[in-house]
């Protein structure tokens, strides 16, 4: 596989690893997202000044307001964080 294909497969695998532990395989609950962030992006949580910032991030991921993060919302989050880390996205 190419590097991009590998990255895409890793995104799918990461989502599938954390989604469904609370019941629904097609989405992550707030608890599942927090667990994923703690294990996969620990520096992000360390950079947060308080729990309210983390909660704000989690709420911001839930574009459709169903209190869960589906795969599309997860991919948008990863893309936004990648842009922020790389400094290439406009505001």
Describe the structure.
With 91 residues, the chain is mainly alpha-helical. It has a single domain (3-86), classed as EF-hand (Recoverin, domain 1). Helix content is 66%, strand content 4%. It contains five helices and two strands. It has helices spanning 3-18, 30-40, 42-47, 51-61, 71-86; strands at residues 27-28, 69-70. It has a two-stranded antiparallel ribbon with strand order 1-2. It starts with a helix and ends in a 5-residue tail after the last helix. The model has no long low-confidence stretch (mean pLDDT 83).
Tally of distinct domains: 1
Number of strands: 2
Q: Decide which structural class fits the backbone.
A: mainly alpha
What top-tier CATH class fits best? Answer: Mainly Alpha
Q: How would you spell out the order of helices and strands?
A: HEHHHEH
CATH architecture classification: Orthogonal Bundle
- What is the CATH homology-level superfamily? EF-hand
Number of helices: 5
**Mean residue pLDDT:** 83
**Which range best describes the helical content: under 10%, 10-25%, 25-40%, 40-55%, 55-70% or over 70%?**
55-70%
CATH topology (fold) name = Recoverin, domain 1
Low-confidence stretches: none
Radius of gyration: 13 Å
Give the spatial strand order of the biggest sheet: 1-2
The amount of beta strand, in percent, is: under 5%
* Head-to-tail CA distance between termini: 33 Å
The shape, in one word, is: globular
- Largest sheet descriptor: 2 strands, antiparallel
Keywords: Calcium, Metal-binding, Repeat
Organism: Oryzias javanicus
GO biological process, one term: endothelial cell migration
Pfam family, one: S_100
């Amino acid at each position: 596989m190419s590097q991009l294909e590998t990255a895409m497969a890793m995104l799918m695998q990461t989502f599938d690893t954390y989604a469904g532990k609370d019941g629904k395989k097609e989405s992550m609950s707030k608890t599942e997202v927090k667990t994923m962030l703690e294990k996969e992006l620990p520096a992000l949580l360390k950079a947060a000044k308080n729990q309210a910032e983390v909660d704000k991030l989690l709420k911001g991921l839930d574009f459709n307001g169903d209190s869960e993060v589906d795969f599309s919302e997860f991919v948008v989050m990863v893309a936004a964080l990648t842009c922020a880390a790389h400094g290439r996205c406009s505001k």
